[in-house]
Amino acid sequence: MTTLVLLALAIGAVWLYRHRKPRTGAGASAVERARQLRTPLVRLADLVGIRTRRGALADRYAAGADGERRTAALLSPLRREGWAILHDRALPGTRANVDHLAIGPGGAVALVDSKRWSARWRLRVVNGRLLHGSHDVTDRLNGTRYETAAVAELLRTPVVPLVVVH
Predict the structure, then answer these.
(1) Closest by alpha carbon to 162, among 71, 76, 92?
(2) pLDDT, average across residues 69-77
(3) Are 86 and 100 in contact (CB under 8 A)?
(4) Spatial separation of the C-alpha atoms in residues 116 and 166, rounded to whole Å
(5) How far apart are CA 102 and CA 105, in angstroms?
(6) Which of 10, 70, 120, 124 places its Cα 20 to 30 Å from the Cα of 134?
(7) Dihedral, CA atoms, 11, 13, 18, 22, nearest 10 degrees?
């Protein structure tokens, strides 16, 4: 009898997991990617204290989603000033997405990219390179450059890139 109850609970949990409503808003795609990476085996490994690459990557996506939600909260007051704020938008024809797109009442467009980096290390520019502690993170801005150029081409208007670091 106990086995049947456990089996029914497991089947119900799997059904709920597969039929949940997709999240929307800031950080939604990062949360979804983290969920995809946390397979049952990854979750089991996490429970017993075994770190896996997929688990670490899922943690990075979850942290990124948190940063995106924080940035969304910072951008929210702009709506009262007439700005349109769009969150987590896919770029057509690519796997890329824009964290935030802010469109001003006068037509100015800003692409806002969220980063959540540890405050343990200082962020600074040295010889034109962005350093986070002693790590060169300049190349991590390549996605922002690409997204900015793509949005500018799609909208046929200049787009200002902004990076918000939490």
Answers:
(1) 71
(2) 94
(3) yes
(4) 5
(5) 10
(6) 70
(7) 160
> How much is the pTM?
0.74
- Please give the single-letter amino acid code of residue 17: Y
Q: Greater confidence, 110 or 47?
A: 110
What's the chain's Rg over C-alpha atoms? Answer: 20
Do 116 and 98 touch, CB atoms closer than 8 A?
no
Query: Please, which residues have CB within 8 angstroms of residue 4's CB and are 6 or more apart in sequence?
Result: none
Instruction: Write the single-letter amino acid at 118.
Output: S
Residue 17 has pLDDT above 60, yes or no: no
Q: Where are the domains of the chain?
A: 2-165
* Residue whose entry in the numeric block shows the structure tokens 């397979």: 39
pLDDT digits (tens, 9 = 90+) for 28-65: 888 898 899 998 888 888 888 999 999 999 998 898 89
What proportions of the chain, in percent to the nearest 5, are helix, strand and coil?
50, 25, 30
